[in-house]
Structure formats: C-alpha cells, structure tokens
Amino acid sequence: MMHNEDLKYYYNLETHQVEQGKISSYDNRIGPYDTREEAEHALEIAKERNQVADAYDEQDDRWRD
C-alpha cells in the first residue's frame, strides 16, 4: 500500500539528489515537496524561508527599543 509520503519528493542533503518517497534517513533529507522541481530547489527554498523568518524575528525584537 502506498502512502501519500511515498509520492512526495525529498532532497537528500548527503547525496544532493532528489528522491521520491522516504528513501533516506530523516536526518539526511528535507521535504516533502509536491514536485521534483521543487525538491531540486530545496536549498534555495529553505534559504528564502530562513530569510523571511529572520526578518520577522528582527522586527519582533524591535518592540523593546
């Protein structure tokens, strides 16, 4: 029986390859992503999300000023 996660794509941080399904250990993969193309850009997506979160945190810290 296939689960929804088996149809998703993950980026393997160790091999730098896209994998479909939970093939690698959880500590070596990021995702899930709906498409292979999204998973291919996983590092860029993570960087953008971190920048947005950092900006939010910085703005939130300003309330003390």
Structure in words:
The chain has three helices and three strands; from the N terminus they run H-E-E-E-H-H. With 65 residues, it is an alpha+beta fold. Helix content is 45%, strand content 20%. The radius of gyration is 15 Å and the shape is elongated. The protein has one domain (4-64). It has a three-stranded antiparallel β-sheet. The longest helix is centred in the last third of the chain and has 20 residues, at 42-61.
Task: Give the secondary structure arrangement, pairings included.
Elements: H1 4-7, E1 9-12, E2 17-20, E3 29-33, H2 36-40, H3 42-61
Main β sheet profile: 3 strands, antiparallel
Total helix count? 3
Mean pLDDT figure: 90
CA-atom Rg in angstroms: 15 Å
Label the overall shape: elongated
Content of β-strand: 15-25%
Determine the N-to-C terminus distance.
56 Å
Residues in helices, as a percent range? 40-55%
- Which strand order do you get reading across the main beta sheet? 2-1-3
What number of structural domains do the residues give? 1
The sequence of SSEs as H and E is: HEEEHH
- Uncertain segments are none
Please state the structural category.
Answer: alpha+beta
| DSSP strand count | 3
